[in-house]
Automatic annotation (TrEMBL):
Keyword Signal: yes
Keyword set, alphabetical order: Signal
Keyword Signal annotated: yes
Signal peptide start-end: 1-48
Protein name: Toluene transporter
Pfam families for this protein: MlaC (PF05494)
Amino acid sequence: MMVMRRLMKSPSRISLSRTSRPMATLFLCAGLAVVPAAAPLVASAAHAQSAGRAAQVTVTAPVNALYAALGRIQAPGSGTFDQRAQILAPVVDKVYNLETVLRGSVGLRYAGLSDGDKQQLLDVFRQFTIARYISSFKPGGDAHFNVDPTPRPSPVGNDQIVTTHIGSTEDPDGTEIDYVMRSGPDGWRIVDVLLNAHISQIAAQRSDFSSTLASGNVQTLITLLQKRVKALSAG
């Protein structure tokens, strides 16, 4: 889908358990009362299933919140760029771990930056992230957001991956967009976005940012991002 391909290049359905016969036979052969023993087991299984569903909701909640906000900014009459930014900005702050995304996007050079440079870069990177979404999801847009309610483990570390599709009336299946989620002090947050389940937004941004840093310094990258924010806000 063109919207998400622009997001990635700019550095970016809802579909929404076992009994053991050998164990039951063992209980019967031993002359034990099966029904009273099974009741707490059933209750325990139901409790575990309920807890599992609650955990899944916690992981997917940030993605659902992001998509709800994107739906609002693409609604007809949702306002000017600045007005839509006011809608989206607090949601981006809540659902993303932007510092982790930025650190991965800059790469090894990030550790050598001063605290002041890190903060200045983070501020403009936040503006860039918000502007990129606003530019991609314009008022009157037809994007449809579908989130799989069952996250899957990431092959690396303890992260979880939430699978989604962004489509439209003409293209219901749309494009698969996956979100890498990481748990921290503030709960689950987005730390990377995967186009077609494997193209990392962080990797794409790192390639882009590295070439800029190689030809200058962090101020060069800050200036570049400021120019991109300005261009996106004018589009």
